[in-house]
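Model it.
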Amino acid sequence: MIYIMRNAKHGTRTSAKEASHERIVSAAARAIRRSGYGGTGVADIMKEAGLTHGAFYAHFESREAMLAEAASRACAESAAVAVNVAASVPPEQALAVMLRTYLSPEHVAQIELGCPLAALGSETPRQAPEVRRVTTRHVKEMIDLVARQSPDWGQPGAHERALVTVATMVGTLLLARAVDEPALSASLREAALKHLGAG
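Modeled.
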């Protein structure tokens, strides 16, 4: 009986630690998109997660380890949105709907919850290898998802078009967020959608 009670306590402790870890990663995934890698500090993340700064090292070996996990979470969230959008419509409409969703005014405005590639692309080359590895994996996943929407999926042409499409999507979103003129932001999005056949 004592053994069982000890296990139950240990299970509760593990569960509490997992919940704390989840809060940290969730806060960090939002923060890196909002403030960039350089603007994301451990103290601010821990405060946002409702934990003390000293508790950080019970969860991560380093700030870079936290950033890598936060990047992975942000990428997973972004990929899940794209997959869900593609699955919500008939296959022949999937790519156009994905593109319109990605280049929507709402996505432009929601930097904290949106695509980490557009939010963090210019900072990524200066990050630790584990952060760059996460980004590379996400870029490949996005290219594959876009290529799978093509009738000639599996052929070189589909892959090449997917490369250009993903580059256009991310670049357009980055620029649409960067400019301070709403009309120019809208024109960038509309021109890209028209060029990609989704306008």
